[in-house]
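Handout for the seminar on molecular recognition.
Each group receives one record of this type.
Step one: identify the two inputs.
Step two: read the structure output and locate the region that could contact coenzyme A.
Step three: write two sentences on what you found, then compare them with the reference statements printed after the record.
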Amino acid sequence: MHRSALGAGALSDEWAATRLPAHTTRDDFVFLIAREGGEVAGFGYGYTGSSGQWWTDHVERSLTSAQRAEWIEPPHFEIVELHVRPSHQRRGIGSALLAQLLTRQPHDRALLSTQTGSRKARSFYAKNGWNELASVDFGPGYPPYIVLGKRV
Ligand SMILES: CC(C)(COP(=O)(O)OP(=O)(O)OC[C@H]1O[C@@H](n2cnc3c(N)ncnc32)[C@H](O)[C@@H]1OP(=O)(O)O)[C@@H](O)C(=O)NCCC(=O)NCCS
C-alpha cells in the first residue's frame, strides 16, 4: 500500500526512511498488517517503551508522579502507529489490530498517544477500553496530544 492511501500526511518520508527502521530494533517490536481481498487494509506496530526515548520522555513530563509509578516505571508496551485505510474503516479492523498487538507483547500495561482533536481516535480508544491519562506537549510544530493507557 502506498502511504498516501492512509490519508493525507499520515506518515512522512522521514518516518519511512529513518524512524521505522530505527524502531524495528527496539525491544519486543511487533508489526502487524491486516489484509482484505489481497490488499492491505491497515497496519499497526509497537515495542517496549522506556525512559530515555523521545516519546517516553515527553509523556513522562506530562504525568503526575503517581501516574509515572503506575505507567512508565513498570515495563510497558507502546503502540506507536495504528492506521486503517479510510475505505476499510469502521468494520472492526482497527480494533482487531490493536487487540492482536497486545496479545503479542509481554507486559500487563500499554500506552499510546493520539491527537486531542481527533474525536474519531478518542472514541475508538474509549471503545477499546483505553483510559485518557493526560495532555502531552511534544514541542513546537506538534498539535496537542493526549496519552492513554490500558491494563492488559
Ligand atoms: C482510529 C482508527 C485506527 C480506527 O480504525 P477502525 O478500523 O475504523 O476501527 P473499528 O472499526 O475497530 O472501531 C470503530 C470505532 O471507532 C470509532 N470510530 C471510527 N470511525 C469513526 C468516525 N468516523 N467517527 C467517530 N468515531 C469513529 C467509533 O468508536 C467506532 O465504533 P462504532 O462504529 O461502534 O461507533 C482509524 O479510524 C484510523 O486509521 N484513523 C486514522 C489514523 C489514526 O487516527 N490512528 C490512531 C491514532 S495513532
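Reference statements: Strands lie at 30-36, 39-49, 76-84, 109-115, 131-136, 145-151. The chain has one domain: 3-151.
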